[in-house]
Write a structure and sequence with these properties.
The chain is mostly helical and about 325 residues long. Among the domains are: about 55 residues, no CATH class; about 80 residues, no CATH class; about 80 residues, no CATH class. Helices cover about 40% and strands about 0% of the residues. The radius of gyration is 32 Å and the shape is elongated. It binds heme C (10 copies).
Amino acid sequence: MLRKSKGGWRCLVVPVLAGFVVCASLAQPAWAGRKSQDKKAKTEQQSAADKQVEQLLEAADKADASQYVGEDTCLQCHDDMAKSFNEGPHWKTLQDQRRGPAFQGCEACHGPGKAHAESADPTKIIRFTALTKTETARRCLRCHQYGKDHENFLRSAHLKNGVACTDCHSIHHFNVGRNLLVKAQPLLCYSCHLDVKPAFSMPYHHKVNEGLIACTNCHNPHGGFLTRQLRSTASQDVLCFNCHTDKAGPFAHEHAPVKTEGCVACHMPHGSPNPRLLRRSQVNLLCLECHTLTVDQIAPATPTKYQACTLCHVAIHGSNTSPVFFTP
Ligand code: HEC
Ligand code: HEC
Ligand code: HEC
Ligand code: HEC
Ligand code: HEC
Ligand code: HEC
Ligand code: HEC
Ligand code: HEC
Ligand code: HEC
Ligand code: HEC
């Protein structure tokens, strides 16, 4: 009932708006129709192309040696690729014949090239612009997954957020030869992580912009087991020990948070407005976040409120001689 009466109401209104509505409704279907046809054609084209790429990748895994032509053939038509290939490290793949042509030269990355070399049809060769980020990573990881630096890439925050090898590295158009980077650090990292940049201009900061240490001293851009893609020491300890070895201990008397919560319980790792990269402007405020002191805990007649706690508790990262960290 309700539906019917609604329809009837619309029928009455339409003629009233006739002039305007008719024009619009005549024009619209034609225009909208063309557009949706366009869109459909595009997605059909797109999914056909996607299928082709998938088939190429699958075929590459199965191809026998006869499907490979060698880089000399490729360079007959692509001589502009010779320079980057020879100046980068990948020419070395030619010297390693153990795994056959699928791991050598241009075709190590671009897949078997016979069909493409004969037809010059660009859809018959693996083009990285046509691959998804994960497909790209897998292509590279066929060789680079070994070793602790890259084995975690497939579950890294970078890949999970759509950042793949070719966002940071370029095989043919690199700007920094060492590591084939598209940009030097830290600019490479700032190009996406603009939000961390201000910290490195604070009054106290790790000298990354000055080139003394790099983002990748602390982070592994290829991912890892720790949060924030942080690196760790060889013994899987906090990464800071890599450089600040004197803080590592073990101490007869550990200051618990150094080991349990880590250095960032008290320090800002990138930069800080406070000396020693501390989280608080006054040492005391920092200590009192965790320690509530009662009168009998404090040495008599010490005006602790006004003195830096570390004036007396000097060995704040741990001590071998004093349970209250008076001496190292
Ligand atoms: C007979 C000449 C010829 C040979 C041999 C040849 N190519 Fe090509 N290749 C072409 C042409 C033509 C194109 C299309 C050019 C374009 O799109 O700019 C192309 C395109 C490509 C592309 C895609 C470029 C893009 O647009 O992303 C890649 C990758 C490629 N070739 C790699 C290779 C490799 C690897 C080999 C050796 C296995 C090889 N080619 C051998 C002629 C050749
Ligand atoms: C280590 C992997 C790898 C090797 C080896 C390699 N390529 Fe590439 N190629 C790529 C990637 C990745 C791209 C996408 C652009 C980039 O990252 O520089 C690419 C892009 C291309 C393109 C597209 C045009 C362009 O300028 O980007 C052509 C053509 C090409 N490669 C041909 C070759 C030829 C010829 C060889 C051998 C001499 C070769 N490639 C060796 C990975 C490789
Ligand atoms: C066929 C195996 C193979 C494939 C596939 C491959 N690489 Fe390599 N890659 C190598 C070898 C071998 C070296 C040289 C290692 C050395 O010098 O010890 C190398 C070195 C590198 C380096 C270090 C450069 C330097 O200056 O030390 C980077 C970066 C790199 N590859 C990135 C990539 C990327 C990105 C891809 C995918 C587009 C890729 N590789 C695919 C074998 C491969
Ligand atoms: C977010 C940027 C980024 C991504 C994504 C990335 N890399 Fe790297 N990669 C770097 C930087 C920066 C270095 C130099 C590290 C250093 O100086 O310690 C490097 C170094 C390397 C090296 C040489 C040093 C080494 O550890 O052996 C290889 C090989 C390499 N990357 C391969 C890859 C491959 C393969 C992928 C994809 C599976 C990839 N990278 C993804 C930034 C990246
Ligand atoms: C192409 C863009 C891009 C580049 C270049 C890039 N990153 Fe990232 N990075 C991302 C995205 C996107 C994420 C995931 C979202 C996020 O946490 O910000 C991420 C995540 C991270 C994380 C983990 C953050 C977390 O919350 O867990 C760290 C650490 C990191 N990147 C460091 C680096 C370093 C170091 C470099 C330079 C070697 C670099 N990134 C280069 C885009 C990029
Ligand atoms: C001295 C070691 C160190 C250096 C150098 C360093 N980081 Fe970090 N970074 C850390 C630590 C530790 C954390 C985790 C902080 C936390 O958990 O509170 C972190 C966190 C991050 C995060 C996660 C988001 C955030 O702000 O907490 C990103 C993104 C990041 N760093 C990017 C970078 C980039 C880009 C560079 C270089 C310009 C860089 N880092 C240099 C130690 C470092
Ligand atoms: C790659 C080596 C390296 C790593 C890793 C590293 N640092 Fe540093 N750190 C330095 C250097 C070098 C300095 C002193 C030079 C400067 O920046 O003025 C420094 C300075 C400091 C200072 C200030 C010291 C002072 O006297 O003012 C603190 C605090 C600090 N680091 C804490 C950390 C923490 C926390 C971590 C882990 C998140 C860490 N560092 C990781 C190299 C490193
Ligand atoms: C409980 C808080 C706390 C923790 C956790 C902590 N620190 Fe500190 N750290 C301090 C304080 C406070 C100072 C300043 C001491 C002073 O005022 O003399 C300091 C100073 C430093 C300094 C500069 C002076 C020196 O002794 O060399 C470095 C470097 C440093 N810390 C590194 C680290 C590292 C690395 C870690 C993790 C292993 C860490 N800190 C964990 C509180 C802490
Ligand atoms: C993140 C929390 C945290 C911060 C910040 C912190 N501490 Fe502690 N501190 C602890 C914990 C936890 C213990 C171990 C307490 C226990 O075993 O009962 C401890 C132990 C101590 C002890 C040994 C005495 C005892 O009760 O075992 C002293 C002294 C001490 N802290 C001084 C300081 C000073 C001085 C600062 C500031 C520079 C500081 N702490 C900052 C958490 C913290
Ligand atoms: C003038 C030197 C001095 C200053 C400054 C000082 N302390 Fe102490 N602190 C002591 C003495 C002395 C003891 C008792 C040591 C003992 O029992 O052997 C002590 C003991 C402690 C203990 C251990 C208490 C317990 O249960 O045994 C903690 C925790 C502590 N101080 C934290 C702090 C904090 C936080 C500050 C800054 C707000 C601070 N101290 C400032 C001298 C000082």
